[in-house]
Every structure is written in structure tokens, then in C-alpha cells.
Amino acid sequence: MARPGDQDREQLIAQASQWLARLDAGRATEQDLNAWRDADPRRAAAFAEVAHAWTRLDALRDAEDKPRPKINRRTWLTGGGAALAASLAGGAWLGRDVLLRDRVVTGVGERRTLALPDGSSVELNTDTEVFWRFDRARRRLWLARGEAALTIAQDHLRPFELFTAQGLARLAAGQFNARLRPAGLDLIVLAGQAAVETASSRAEAQVIGPADARRVLEITARRIDVVDTPEAQVQSVQAWRRGEIVFEGQALSAAVEEYNRYLTRKLVIGDDRAGRLRLGGRFLTGDPDSFLDALRTTFGLRIIDDGSSRILLKSR
Amino acid sequence: MAWLRDIDRWFGARVLPYAANYRAYARKLTGDEADAEDLVQEAYAKVLGVAEWRRLETPERFVLTIIRNLAFERFRRAKVVAIRQIGVLEMDALPDPAPDAYAVTSARQELDLVLAALERLPVQCRKVLTLRKMHGLSPGQIAVRLNLSVSTVEKHLAKGLRLLTKALAAGDGRSIEKRSSSWRDRAIKTESN
Q1: A20 — contact with chain B (CB < 8 Å)?
Q2: What is the percent of chain B with per-residue pLDDT over 90, rounded to a whole number?
Q3: Is there a contact between B112 and A85 if contact means CB atoms under 8 Å apart?
Q4: Does residue B14 contact residue B6 with C-beta atoms inside 8 Å?
């Protein structure tokens, strides 16, 4: 017999699915949805869960875009899905080895260097988590959270592979900075070569001579953009390895968000006027007080300490 | 898709991947499947009501905390509380949510997962969802292609989505249960190094 809790959930998920289908068919408006959703917080949760499943189906669109052995649409629709699934599963990237990986983490405000047995090194920035596993055939590193600077040693027999939720990057000997953002992975090639592969696309970038522009690969599930990056920006991205944080005209709201990555006691912007101020400068990630002092003296901000956080306000 | 709010996207990306952890923890606290599901749903509802959600550093720990508080509230209200449950509440720190398999799977694995779930749907549901999401046809175009009415297409979409939501949630769960034992193994292995 169905239990009450399960039944509620069943029903909510069913209703939320109906709503999403109705909206998708243009037979309901956002206002209709809001009226239903706002009446019970559980509905909002059920709808978010269904919407998440709907979004995950977008992976299919990426699969469709990707050139691959031709599969007759009709075959697929009438149950040829297994063949497609099998052809796409060819990678089998993780497999059982997942259970044998080593794990390294840093807490908020922490930095740590992981020396790997092949001479490569991985520097972990604040709040970062990586797994790694080397075997006879390959060297693999998984970035699960945060940001890491990679110095990859040469090994012709074992390629170096960096895995993230977005896809796989094959790295030749060189220097790289990988940062996971909510939108996706930013992989900066400082020196060397990277080839990135996701479910939907591929891209490569290389930096050979010192005169070559550094490149950023901006990787999301849907696309990869390769962008040349000015040296100054590369330097400020790399500042974290020296325990520094560099701002070059960012809005205070963006700067605070960046600074907060390093702080357990967060900074909060108390009014919009303060958030719009633009600032530049070089600060220590481990010493927010100097940053706050600068804000106080340069911008005349008031700072209220409420124990759990520090609130920045524009005075007058 | 204006109806998909930022908070919904965030909820999908940052909260839901740990669903199996929440359920396991809630089960441990309540000792009852249905009660546990209830707690998780209530916690979800609460998270979605947090005005400052953007500032939550580790939303998964936040959800676990809510679950614990909700469980505690219930125990206080209950006339009889099993000793086992009191023990759990007092002794137990919050579990450290294992970074879920989902968080480190490749995009290709994610695709496999979705395809596998899609395979198990009834034929019509699968057809409609495939045409909609893989080929990008509108519900109206699908209706013409399959010789159905739009409202029937809508019904198949809704049904498919309902089944898929449950299947994907259950799928995430399985992969985590497997890993939780492996995590212990790994911890032991690291210590002996």
C-alpha cells in the first residue's frame, strides 16, 4: 500500500509535470503557474525537481548536434535507443576506477599543493576538491569543486586527463588553471596544449612560444568558447597562487563575491549604491581587514560587524 | 523558458544532486521511509523559500541541517520517541555529504543516464519527449507528425516527465549507495599509506 508521504510526493510530481507540459505547449501562462506554485511551498519544490529533469533532457539535444555514426531517426523512435546509448557510452571514462581514486580537499581560505608521483603538481585554491588516479596507461585528475593550477610533467606514454562535470580535457606538458564556476569550467592554457571534449563539442588551444596569447577555454555542457586573454588578466587570475587577489575596475559586488570565496565570515553588501562602486587594487586573500580598511578610507564605506558577517554600507 | 527561475536552476544544480544523501539521513533519523520522504520534501520547500539562497556556500549542508531541525521538532511533538532516535539526534554530527557521483560524472555519462531512463518509458511518452527535446519540435509540430491532438501530446509529455523525474531521482540514489561503502574503503586505504 502506498504510504501517505510517498503519495503526496507522487501527486505533487504529477501535478508539477502537468504544469510544465502545459506551459511548454503554451496553454498556461507564467501567472497561472505562479498562482499554483505560490499556494504551497511543496509545489515549488516539486516543480523545481520536475524542471530539473526537463533540463537534464537537454543533454539529448547536445547528443543530436554531435556528428556520430548515422542512426535512422525511425529506428531510434521505435526502440533503437539501445544502439545509440551503446555508441555514446563508448567512453566508459570512469568505470570501477572511481573507487580507487585518492582525494585531496581544501577548506575555505585554504591553499594546498599536491605533488604527484610523475613530477606534476596541482595547487588547490580555496574550497576545492580533486581526485586523482595514475595507472600504467594514463594519469587522471578529477576537479569536483573549486579551482586548481596544474603544472603537468611530460610523459609520452601516459596522457594527462582532467575530468569535470562538463567533460574531459587532455593536457600536454605545460601550465594550466582550471576553475569551476556555476556556469561551467574555465580552463586557461598558460603554456602547453589542451584538447577538450564534451558530450556536444570539441575544442583545442595551444600556447607554445612566450609571445603566444594565453587562451581561455570556457566550457559548458552546451558549448566551448576559446578566448584570447590579455596578460594582465592572466596575472590577476594567477594571483591566488601567491595568496593575493587582484581587482581591476570590477564592481564592488563582483569583488566581494570573489573575496568571499576565501572567507568563512562573509562580506555582505548592505546597499546598492555601495555595490556599484568600482575598485582596483591588490589585496591578501588571508587578510580581509586590509581590504576593508581600503574600502573605508577610499570610498568612505561604513562597515557593520554583526558577528556572522560584515556588512558594507555607503555612508551618507 | 521564463517559468524556470534562477532559484530553480540553482536548486537543480546545487541541491538535488545530493538527494540520496538527504534521503539516507532522513531515514536514519526517522527510521521510516515515508516520514523520511516527507522531511526531505519539507526541507526542499524551505530551501526554496530562502531569500538569500545565492549566499548559501554549501546548500547541501544547509538542507541536511534543516532535515535535522525538522526531525527534532517532530520528535519533540511526538508523545513517544524511540530511544534509538534520541540517540541518533544527540550523538550524530551532520553527515559529510559525499560529493555525489553525479557531480563528477562526465557529460557523456549524464547523457547515458538520461538515455537509459528514457528507454524505460512507455513508447508514446518516449517518442514525444524525444521529438520535443532531441529534435526540438514544438508540441504542435509533434501533434501533426504523430497524428495526435495537442492535448494528447501534452498528456504524454506530462506523463513522461513524471516518470522520468522519479527514475532520475532513483538513479542518482543508486550510484551514491554504491559509493558510500567505497568511501569508507578509501579512507582506510589512505590511512594505511
Answers
A1: yes
A2: 17
A3: yes
A4: no
